[in-house]
């Protein structure tokens, strides 16, 4: 099993969530977060002055999937987020999961997904 964490722009969350749901990946957790990538943030102008916003509002979504579903899920996330002309579409992190236990039933392993 693998944990997939994707940090994406808030405005792409609904598209990602809908695409994952259509593909049968309904369980996910979403965290609000702030961060920056290579650009270091954005510059904004207000009235006669400009200022730099270096930590932008993002969301991190996390889901745990079977090993064979990793490419499908990452392809869905990429397809839903990559067409942003402004850049900064986000990052995906994949890490192994040792165990999963469903609290309500006590099921463990892939059955708990």
Search tags:
Alpha-Beta Plaits, 113 residues, alpha+beta, two-stranded antiparallel ribbon, 6 strands, 4-stranded antiparallel β-sheet
The biggest beta sheet reads: 4 strands, antiparallel
How many extended strands? 6
Percent of residues in helical segments?
A: 10-25%
> For the largest beta sheet, what order do the strands appear in spatially?
2-5-1-6
Estimated structural class: alpha+beta
Mean pLDDT: 88
Shape: elongated
CATH class term: Alpha Beta
Q: Which strand-content bin applies to the residues?
A: 35-45%
Characterize the structure shown.
The longest helix has 12 residues. It contains two helices and six strands. The strands form two sheets. Strands 2-5-1-6 form a four-stranded antiparallel β-sheet, covered by helices on one side. The N and C termini lie close together (9 Å). It is of the alpha+beta class and 113 residues long. It has one domain: 2-Layer Sandwich (Alpha-Beta Plaits). The radius of gyration is 17 Å and the shape is elongated. α1 runs antiparallel to α2.
Write the layout of secondary structure elements.
Blueprint: E1 2-9, H1 13-22, E2 29-35, E3 42-46, E4 49-53, E5 56-65, H2 70-81, E6 90-96
In a nutshell, what does this entry contain?
The chain is of the alpha+beta class. The chain has helices spanning 13-22, 70-81; strands spanning 2-9, 29-35, 42-46, 49-53, 56-65, 90-96.
């Amino acid at each position: 099993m693998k944990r997939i964490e994707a940090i994406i722009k808030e405005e792409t969350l609904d598209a990602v969530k809908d695409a994952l749901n259509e593909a049968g990946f309904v369980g996910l957790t979403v965290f609000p977060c702030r961060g920056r990538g290579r650009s270091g943030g954005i510059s904004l102008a207000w009235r006669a002055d400009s200022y730099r916003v270096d930590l932008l509002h993002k969301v991190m979504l996390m889901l745990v999937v079977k090993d064979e579903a990793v490419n499908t899920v990452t392809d869905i996330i990429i397809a839903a987020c990559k067409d942003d002309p402004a850049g900064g579409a986000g990052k995906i992190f994949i890490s192994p999961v040792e165990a999963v236990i469903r609290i309500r039933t006590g099921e463990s392993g892939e059955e708990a997904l």
